[in-house]
């Protein structure tokens, strides 16, 4: 699994270098954004946890009119559903650091649907876990995750945009995988152009 992770990160690095070289014909921008929305557990994960929330901070770079690479820090939490009679409370937290490649379909600066492909590391931990009426110590684990999704951005001013996204996340943890959707909306800010 470690070799696969290293290989995928290296592929993103090489892609970024290639896109940077291609981007010399366009205006290039640094973009930061913040978004929030619901997180929806799926498969067996939905048997244990309820609908949660996510909050994300993103920093990106627009290489061409169509392609952006970004680094994201995302916090997600899922309340425990209470389906196990021994466990009466708790919350699962997920802190994610990941890289995304975004491809704008129309390269339209005003209205732009786009696709998302992401890779990153997820750090899970439980808090407020109550088993048989006794509060338990925090349990944690980490896993490598992949995500795929779609988004839509709308330019309000030359620097401010609003956007909405949904992503399907698959995280490989010990012995199984954790699957969930994140849905969010937010605001992005374009900092500057470094060349014409």
Tell me what you see in this structure.
By secondary structure, this protein is mainly beta. The protein has one domain (2-193): Porin, CATH 2.40.160. It is built from two helices and nine strands; from the N terminus they run αβαββββββββ. Strands 1-2-3-4-5-7-8-9 form an eight-stranded antiparallel beta barrel. It is elongated. The relative contact order is 0.20. The model is unreliable at 13-26 (pLDDT under 50).
SSE blueprint and pairings:
Blueprint: H1 2-22, E1 29-41, H2 45-48, E2 52-62, E3 67-79, E4 87-104, E5 111-131, E6 134-135, E7 140-155, E8 160-173, E9 176-193
Antiparallel strand pairs: 1-2, 1-9, 2-3, 3-4, 4-5, 5-6, 5-7, 7-8, 8-9
Order of helices and strands: HEHEEEEEEEE
Strand portion: over 45%
Q: From the alpha-carbon coordinates, what is the Rg to the nearest angstrom?
A: 19 Å
Provide a count of the helices: 2
Q: Average pLDDT across residues?
A: 82
Number of domains: 1
N/C terminus separation: 42 Å
CATH architecture identity = Beta Barrel
Report the helical percentage. Answer: 10-25%
CATH class: Mainly Beta
Q: Count the E strands.
A: 9
Report the major sheet. 8 strands, antiparallel, barrel
Strand order of the largest sheet: 1-2-3-4-5-7-8-9
Shape: elongated
CATH topological fold name: Porin
Unreliable residue runs: 13-26
SS content category: mainly beta
């Amino acid at each position: 699994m470690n070799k696969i992770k290293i290989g995928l990160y290296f592929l993103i690095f090489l892609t970024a270098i290639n896109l940077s070289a291609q981007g010399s014909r366009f205006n290039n921008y640094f973009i930061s954004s913040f978004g929030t929305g619901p997180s929806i557990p799926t498969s067996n994960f939905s048997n244990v946890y309820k609908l949660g929330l996510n909050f994300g901070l993103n920093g990106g770079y627009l290489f061409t009119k169509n392609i952006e690479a970004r680094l994201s820090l995302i916090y997600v939490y899922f309340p425990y559903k209470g389906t196990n009679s021994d466990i009466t409370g708790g919350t699962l937290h997920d802190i994610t650091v990941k890289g995304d490649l975004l491809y704008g379909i129309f390269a339209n600066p005003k209205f732009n649907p786009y696709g998302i492909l992401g890779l990153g590391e997820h750090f899970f931990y439980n808090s407020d876990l109550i088993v048989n009426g006794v509060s338990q110590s925090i349990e944690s684990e980490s896993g490598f995750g992949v995500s795929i999704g779609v988004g839509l951005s709308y330019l309000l001013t030359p620097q401010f945009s609003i956007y909405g996204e949904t992503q399907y996340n698959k995280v490989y943890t010990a012995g199984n995988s954790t699957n969930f959707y994140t849905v969010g909306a937010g605001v992005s800010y374009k900092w500057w152009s470094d060349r014409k």
